Amino acid sequence: MKNLFEIAEACLYSANIDEKLALTHQAWQTLTNGELILNSNDPILPIARVSFPDKPILLAPRNMPRRKLSTPEGVSAFFHAIAHVEFMAIYLAWDLVYRFRGMPEQFYQDWLRIADEEAQHFELIRIHLQSMQMDYGDLPAHNGLWDHARDTAYDLLARLAMVPRCMEARGLDVTPAIIARFKQLGDDRSVALLNRILTDEVGHVERGSYWFKFVCEQQGFEAEAKFRQLIKQYYQGGKPKGPFNREMRKIAGFSNAELDWLEDQEYL
Ligand SMILES: [Fe+2]
Ligand SMILES: [Fe+2]
Predict the structure, then answer these.
(1) Mean pLDDT of 237-262
(2) Spatial distance between the Cα atoms of 13 and 52, rounded to a whole number of angstroms
(3) Ligand 2: centre distance to CA 145 (Å)
(4) Domain covering 1-36+53-145 assigned CATH 1.20.120 in the classification
(5) Which of 46, 71, 102, 227 sees the fewest Cβ atoms within 10 Å?
(6) Which residue, among 226, 104, 203, has the nearest Cα to 155 in the 3D structure?
(7) Which ligand has an atom closest to residue 206 CA?
């Protein structure tokens, strides 16, 4: 029998991309075969030691290559940026599995399935990039995606609020317009790829909402008040930017009251 947390450690603390992808798929397969141990007494290694590949070089968002979808270079730069988001999403799912122990089996099943889906997204985009004569790592990438993970390494509620319910939820807001743009450009492969990812991402945010509410109940918090409090704390008095995709966010477990509050930029 293999142990989930040993595999998580191997994925987080190794920078090898192909090994990480293979281990992620294997882990999900092993779990669905009922052959994975879902608890461990081994110490949890610090998040500061998580290791990333040498390439891509990481830069502040303002120094990123331009990605106008009207030029081939812009399209490949756009998909390089998405490849990076998906690559970091593999880490984020594994880190959620690894760092928060003693949760119900369903929790680990959900986030391991999500890690596996993120690995699939990354691979699909990588193939798409290669068809445009580019590989992951050829361009610089956004350096901020791991910040939320580092900031919330010791607080499961904050992690669930910030990563699936803010970062990933943002994808639901912005992706439909990008899909519409590729449709307009007649780029059917990009449309199909982004549609597939969007469908899965609704599920990831939904699991984020589900487990956020679950842990709130466990710890005696009112979930919507706790979400607002965490937003205020982590956005230092601000809020995530809209416009919000109410329809998809509702499928993903946001209430009308939460969406009203997010949309009301005057009121905190
Ligand atoms: Fe994804
Ligand atoms: Fe995701």
Answers:
(1) 95
(2) 8
(3) 13
(4) yes
(5) 102
(6) 226
(7) 2
pTM over 0.70: yes
CA of 266 to the centre of ligand 1 (A): 32
User: Under DSSP, is residue 227 helix (H, G, I), strand (E, B) or coil?
Assistant: helix
Listing DSSP states for 26-62 in one string gives HHHHHHHTT-EE----SPPPPGGG----S-SPEE-GG
Q: Which of 94, 107, 95 is nearest to 25 (CA)?
A: 94
pLDDT at site 139? 95
* Rounded distance from Cα 115 to ligand 1 centre (Å): 9
Residues spanned by CATH 1.20.120 within the chain?
Answer: 1-36+53-145
- Residue 89 Cα to ligand 2 midpoint, Å, equals 6
Please measure the distance between the N-terminal and C-terminal CA atoms of the chain and give it in whole angstroms. 49
Q: What pLDDT, on a 0 to 100 scale, did the predictor assign at position 267?
A: 67
**Per-chain residues with Cβ under 5 A from ion ligand 1:** 86, 89, 118, 121
Q: Tell me the C-alpha distance between 95 and 151, whole Å.
A: 13
Q: Are strands 2-3 and 36-37 parallel, antiparallel or unpaired?
A: parallel
